[in-house]
Automatic annotation (TrEMBL):
Compositional bias (Acidic residues): 560-572
Lineage: Eukaryota, Metazoa, Spiralia, Lophotrochozoa, Mollusca
Name of the featured protein: Uncharacterized protein
PANTHER family given in the database record: DNA-DIRECTED RNA POLYMERASES I, II, AND III SUBUNIT RPABC2 (PTHR10773), PTHR10773:SF19
Region (Disordered): 537-572
Length: 572
C-alpha cells in the first residue's frame, strides 16, 4: 500500500526480540519462563594429556575466539562458524578377530579446529565446546543442517503461528470499517502527497468505538483497540485534518534549534527571529492602538475578519453521519473591535466556493452596510493568499471606494503564525453551540449562530449564488500591472504591509455564478441515503433530493493549512 506516513512497529524493542538478541550475544538475560540466564564465558578445561594442540592455545587466544563467535550478527552466522571449524568424515570400519566388521559406535568422525593467529589448530571436542561455551546438541544441529561445510538451515524460533493471532477475517473486517469512512484528497496536490483526509471530528479512538458498535450489531467479536490502531497506522495513509494556522513555524523551529543546539543559534537565524518577533509585537500594538482610536472616534471602524472551519451538514450525534459525505457550509466572520458587534456571512457549497471572490463579496456587502458616518475602515486579517491577500480583494476594495462615497480602506495583515484575533472567539462559541443542537440543513446554522451569543447576538447574513460578484473578472479589467509599482520596483502583494487607494474608476461588475454549483454524485447519494434511513427529518428531504450534481465533481479537502498555500498564491 506504500508508505503511510504513520508510526510503524519497532520489533527490535519487543521484549522477546531483545531477549533473543541478548542470547545471541551471550549476555545475561531473563528467559521466557522468568529464569535469569547468566552471561556466557570461556569455560575452563583440562587438556594437559590431550594428544592435540589444545595446551598450546593460551587463554587470550581462547577469549579472542569466543569474542569473534558472539559478535556474529545472526543465529545462522554462528552456526556457520561452527560448521566451518569442524571437519566431518565417515568413521572407519573396525574388523574383529574373525575378520567380521564390528558395529560402529558412530556413523561419522568429527575433527574440531580453532584458528589461532591465522593458523588452523586441531583441538579436542571438549576444548572446542568449552571455548565457545556451547553444548553437543548445538554442534549436532549445526552439522545435521550443513552441506560441504556450509550451514544450510535456518532459525526456526518464532516461526510458528502465534496462538493469540488475530484471525485474517477479523483484520479484513477492520479494513472494511476504515474504508467505510468518506475521505477526501488534498486540494494542493503539488506537494506530491497521496495522503487522504477524514472528518476533523474523528479520531482513531472514536472510530474504534463506532467499530465496536457495528460488531455488536452484527454479532461479531471486535478486535482490540491496539490491533485496530495498528491496521490504521500501517495500512492506510489517512489523517484527520486539523487547521494549523495558529502554529508559528518560525517560533517552533527557533525553539527546537535552541533546544537541540543548547542555545547556539547562528547570527542570521537570530536576526530573522528578532525581526519576526518585532513584526509580531508591532502588529499587536498597532491593532490595540486602532481599537482604542475607534472607540473614541465614530468615523473610524476597525474590524478583524476570518473564515471559520468548514461546517459539515447535517451534523449531530448519530453514528451514521460519520460514514457519509456531508454538505459543506462556510461562515465568514467580521468582528467590530469598538463595540463588539459581529456579523456572519453564511453560505453552502452550492451557492459558492471557499475562495477569494466569495470573501471579497462578503467584505463589499459589509462595507456597504456601514453607517454613512464611517469614513475610515481598517481591516485586520491573517495572511492567507487564497482568501485575504490577493488582487481580487484589491479589486473589491477599488469597487467599494467607487460606490461608497467618502470612505477610505486600510487592510492590515498580522504576522504569520500570530493571527489570533477577536473573531476567533466567534468560531469557538458557534462550535460550542452546535454540540447540543443537531443541524440538518444549511439554514439550520442561522439559528445556531444566533444562539451562540445571547447578549448582543451575532448578525447572520445568508449568501446566495446570485449575490457573489465576479471580482476576478473585475481585477483583470482594472489591474493591468501586478509586476512593478509606480517606482518601477517589483510589486508583491504578499509582502506588502499596508495598502490604501482612493476611488478613481467607475466599473460595472457581473455576477460570478449564473446557477447553483453542483456537488459530487457520491455526496448526493450519501445525503439522500441519510434521508431514506430517517437520520434527516422528512421536511428536509426535498432540499437534498434537488441538489445539483456533476459527474466531474471531486470531493477535495477544502481547508488548507498555512503550509499548503504559499503566501503569494491566489485562488478563487
Amino acid at each position: 500500500m506504500g508508505r503511510t506516513g504513520k508510526r510503524s512497529a519497532r520489533p527490535e524493542t519487543w521484549k522477546k526480540n531483545v531477549r533473543k538478541t541478548l542470547k545471541l550475544q551471550g549476555k545475561s538475560h531473563v528467559s521466557q519462563s522468568g529464569k535469569v540466564v547468566s552471561e556466557k564465558k570461556v569455560s575452563s578445561v583440562d587438556c594437559s594429556k590431550c594428544r592435540f594442540g589444545c595446551k598450546d592455545i593460551t587463554g587470550e587466544d581462547r577469549k579472542a575466539i569466543f569474542d569473534i563467535f558472539y559478535a556474529l550478527p545472526s543465529y545462522e552466522r554462528q552456526k556457520q562458524f561452527v560448521c566451518a571449524n569442524i571437519d566431518e568424515q565417515e568413521s572407519k570400519t573396525v574388523f574383529g578377530k574373525d575378520q567380521c566388521p564390528l558395529p560402529k559406535k558412530r556413523s561419522v568422525a568429527r575433527a574440531f579446529y580453532c584458528t589461532v593467529k591465522g593458523s588452523r589448530v586441531r583441538v579436542c571436542k571438549k576444548f572446542f565446546l568449552a571455548t565457545l561455551n556451547i553444548g553437543e546438541g548445538y554442534v549436532s544441529h549445526a552439522m545435521a543442517n550443513s552441506d560441504m561445510g556450509t550451514f544450510t538451515g535456518g532459525d526456526g524460533r518464532g516461526r510458528h503461528r502465534a496462538h493469540n493471532r488475530t484471525h485474517d477475517s477479523a483484520v479484513e473486517g477492520v479494513r472494511d470499517h476504515i474504508r467505510s469512512f468518506p475521505c477526501v484528497e488534498s486540494h494542493y496536490t503539488r506537494k506530491g502527497t497521496k495522503r487522504q483526509y477524514l472528518d476533523a471530528s474523528l479520531t482513531v479512538t472514536k472510530m474504534y468505538h463506532l467499530y465496536k458498535e457495528k460488531c455488536a450489531a452484527d454479532g461479531k467479536v471486535p478486535v482490540s483497540c491496539r490491533k485496530y490502531r495498528d491496521v490504521f497506522n500501517s495500512e492506510f495513509n489517512l489523517s484527520f485534518h486539523k487547521p494549523k494556522k495558529d502554529q508559528c513555524m518560525v517560533c517552533v523551529n527557533y525553539a527546537m534549534k535552541q533546544k537541540q543546539e543548547q542555545g547556539l543559534v547562528n547570527e542570521k537565524e537570530e536576526q530573522e527571529f528578532q525581526r519576526h518577533t518585532e513584526l509580531k509585537m508591532r502588529a499587536k500594538a498597532e491593532k490595540t492602538q486602532d481599537k482604542e482610536l475607534a472607540k473614541k472616534d465614530p468615523t473610524k471602524h476597525v474590524v478583524t475578519l476570518d473564515l471559520q472551519a468548514v461546517l459539515p451538514t447535517p451534523c449531530g450525534l448519530v453514528s451514521q453521519l460519520y460514514y457519509k459525505r456531508k454538505l459543506s457550509v462556510y461562515n465568514f466572520t467580521v468582528y467590530s473591535l469598538a463595540d463588539g458587534k459581529a456579523t456572519c456571512f453564511v453560505w453552502d457549497e452550492t451557492n459558492g466556493r471557499r475562495g477569494s471572490v466569495e470573501i471579497a463579496t462578503c467584505l463589499f456587502l459589509y462595507l456597504k452596510s456601514l453607517p454613512v458616518t464611517v469614513k475610515d475602515v481598517i481591516l485586520y486579517s491573517d495572511c492567507c493568499g487564497g482568501q485575504n491577500r490577493n488582487q481580487y480583494l484589491a479589486a473589491a476594495f477599488l469597487y467599494a471606494l467607487e460606490n461608497i462615497p467618502n470612505i477610505s480602506i486600510t487592510h492590515k495583515y498580522l504576522e504569520t503564525g500570530h493571527t489570533q484575533m477577536e473573531c476567533d472567539s466567534m468560531h469557538s462559541a458557534i462550535s460550542f453551540a452546535k454540540k447540543a443542537n443537531p443541524v440538518f440543513i444549511p439554514s439550520g446554522w442561522d439559528i445556531i449562530v444566533r444562539m451562540a451569543r445571547r447578549t448582543n447576538p451575532y448578525t447572520v447574513i445568508p449568501i446566495r449564488f446570485t449575490q457573489i460578484l465576479d471580482f476576478k473578472y473585475l481585477a483583470s479589467q482594472i489591474i493591468r500591472n501586478t509586476k512593478v509599482d509606480k517606482n518601477n520596483k517589483r510589486l508583491c502583494l504578499s509582502s506588502s504591509s499596508a495598502r490604501r487607494r482612493q476611488p478613481d474608476l467607475a466599473q460595472i461588475i457581473r455576477p460570478r455564478y449564473t446557477e447553483k454549483l453542483p456537488v459530487s454524485e457520491a455526496k448526493k447519494r450519501d445525503l439522500v441515503s441519510l434521508c431514506r434511513s430517517g437520520v434527516i427529518p422528512e421536511d428536509h428531504h426535498p432540499f437534498y433530493e434537488n441538489l445539483p450534481t456533476a459527474s466531474s465533481k471531486v470531493d477535495r479537502l477544502e481547508e488548507p493549512d498555512v503550509e499548503d498555500v504559499d503566501s503569494g498564491e491566489e485562488t478563487d
